[in-house]
Write a structure and sequence with these properties.
Elements (H helix, E strand, L loop, with lengths): L12 E7 L2 H11 L4 H4 L1 H5 L10 H14 L6 E10 L8 E12 L4 E9 L5 E11 L17 E4 L5 H12 L3 E6 L3 H13 L4 E5 L7 H13 L4 E4 L15 H28 L3 E6 L13 H21 L4 E8 L12 H10 L8 H12 L10 E4 L7
Parallel strand pairs: 6-7, 6-9, 7-8, 9-10, 10-11, 11-12
Antiparallel strand pairs: 1-3, 2-5, 3-4, 4-5
Helix pairs in contact: 5-11, 7-8, 8-9
């Protein structure tokens, strides 16, 4: 079992007590070939200023390796560097206390900076120094709990809409307890929850205005109380597109998209992270849009800016949260058959469908399937990625 890096804290101390014997010196000489008479010949040692055998300095220092390899951090430790200063000689029969203290942690590199100190039975310093130690991982690492121990709970913002509803139904079918977030259409959220419960699934409707930062804690708190945790967060909520030319675009409309799509996703993610980090497992899936990758859709500026900001934030979140066992990805659908495109002329919808190699628009179920994959264990090594669900409308 490798050391659990997350459990190690700054200030942690581990020590080892060792009494130096003639047998230790003999074995050290056999191993290293260092038979300097100062260390092994009593008569010679008496002619020196020390007047007695002096134990090899590196023999005492070698026990730092024992502490590092077995106690702090323990198995899987790789001793990267060490500086040391020898203060006093070690004599046969001395009782040494060898200690290591964590000074700093570097999460991304899994690196520890240690204070190393050896004292004798009189409390006198024998050796002092600083070490750097890397904590390795293995493919069989047990840091993360087994999948059976993780809560299968998913929160879907905007979960009562077309795409959101499809995502909720798919995740419920995959065995998740689902929290259906809604802002204004309680009737739709309650109907969806009722259908899911009738089918034997666990579901809960949770209201909240994501433009208000305090809503995130309320929604996540409801999930924790009802189901005991959160393992998947799908940030799907977005205001209506409401196309407008630049001359008619008010900054408040731009701000609304930023508040819901970006700030809302940020606050929801922050509210979930404590629970995800505790079990070293989490999936955050942000629903962006084809407008981020394809040609600009005229008059969709506010909507596109919100989706673009969410896409960029997702990559930075993925880079930061990866060491915690949390993945962050995006699903970017093209024009999807929902009420969101109700104001788009049918001719335009048909033209978009013809431009796709699949010759159709995406469906809410297409998007839900992509979200389900990114939420699954099969996507455990996928993070910082945008999965385009557009029938080949753009290719990379």
């Amino acid at each position: 079992m490798f050391a659990n890096f997350d459990a190690i804290q700054v200030g942690d101390v581990r020590t080892l007590v060792k009494t130096i014997t003639p047998e230790d010196v003999r074995r050290f000489v056999e191993l290293t070939g260092d038979d300097n008479p100062l260390h092994v010949d009593q008569a010679y040692a008496e002619t020196t200023p020390f007047k007695d055998i002096v134990v090899h300095g590196m023999l005492g220092a070698s026990f730092l390796s024992t502490v590092i390899g077995t106690k702090l951090p323990g198995p899987g430790a790789l001793w990267v560097s060490q500086n040391m200063e020898f203060h006093r000689p070690v004599r046969l029969g001395d009782e040494l206390t060898i200690g290591c203290t964590v000074l700093k942690k570097h999460e991304r590199d899994r690196l520890l900076e240690l204070d190393t100190l050896i004292t004798n039975q009189a409390g006198e310093q024998i050796l002092s120094g600083k070490a750097k130690v890397k904590v390795l991982t293995s493919r069989t690492s047990t840091d993360a709990p087994a999948s059976a121990e993780r809560p299968k709970v998913a929160i879907v913002t905007g979960g009562s809409g077309g795409i959101g509803g499809a995502i909720v139904r798919r995740l419920a079918a995959d065995g998740y307890s689902v929290v259906v977030h809604y802002r204004g259409r309680r009737d739709r959220a309650d109907a969806l929850v009722s259908d899911l419960r009738d089918a034997g699934h666990q579901a809960l409707a949770a209201p909240g205005d994501l433009a208000m930062p305090e809503s995130a804690a309320v929604i996540v708190g409801a999930a924790i109380r009802a189901f005991g945790g959160v393992s998947v967060l799908v940030n799907n909520a977005a205001p209506p597109i409401n196309p407008k030319p630049l001359e008619g675009l008010d900054w408040r409309e731009m701000q609304q998209h930023l508040d819901v799509q970006v700030r809302g996703a940020l606050e929801m993610s922050k509210a979930c992270l404590q629970h995800m980090r505790a079990v070293r497992h989490g999936r955050i899936v942000n629903v962006t849009s084809q407008v981020v990758q394809g040609n600009p859709s005229v008059n969709w500026t506010a909507y596109a800016v919100g989706k673009s900001a969410l896409s960029t934030m997702s990559r930075y979140m993925a880079a930061e949260l990866g060491p915690s066992g949390v993945t962050v990805n995006c699903v970017a659908p093209s024009m999807t058959e929902t009420s969101l495109i109700g104001n788009i002329p049918e001719k335009v919808q048909m033209m978009v469908a013809r431009q796709s190699p699949m010759r159709r628009l995406s469906t809410p179920e297409d998007v839900a399937n992509a979200v389900a994959y990114l939420a699954s264990d099969e996507a455990a090594f996928v993070t910082g990625h945008t999965l385009a669900v557009n029938g080949g409308l753009t290719m990379s």
